[in-house]
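Exercise 7.
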Amino acid sequence: MQTSFIFLFLSFALFAQDKSTSELTGTVVISYENIDPNQGMVEASIYNKSETFLVKDRFIQRKRAEVVNGKSQIIFENIPFGKVAVGSYHDVDADGEYDKNWVGLPAEPYAFSKAPCSRLRKPYFEEVSVDFTKSGQVIELTFMRFMD
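Solution. The predicted structure, written as tokens, is:
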């Protein structure tokens, strides 16, 4: 009797844990249109905390995708629901590096999940974050250049 109770309890606990995990995360689709020039790769990093936003290697996930016909798409899976921010750049020469000019300013196009308030500083998590509330949610990004 006690063995079957323990088995039943453990089965329920595992089922409840698995179900709650799947309900707390989902898939985010990052979509890009009108990429110019029509070459290279796009890279995106997704963050969910202000203190780690744009800090090297402190993202939830980072992925790259090829630019085809001026479009690209990156799919992030198992992202926790809540506030998220995406930082992305167009790696025009596909060298895996985010190119900067001699002063250290961005030389390749970049994008965030929302337009930042100023181009004269790094954006804050709070100003570019979006509410991630359902799996399959699409975030459309448009690249900008520092000097545009």
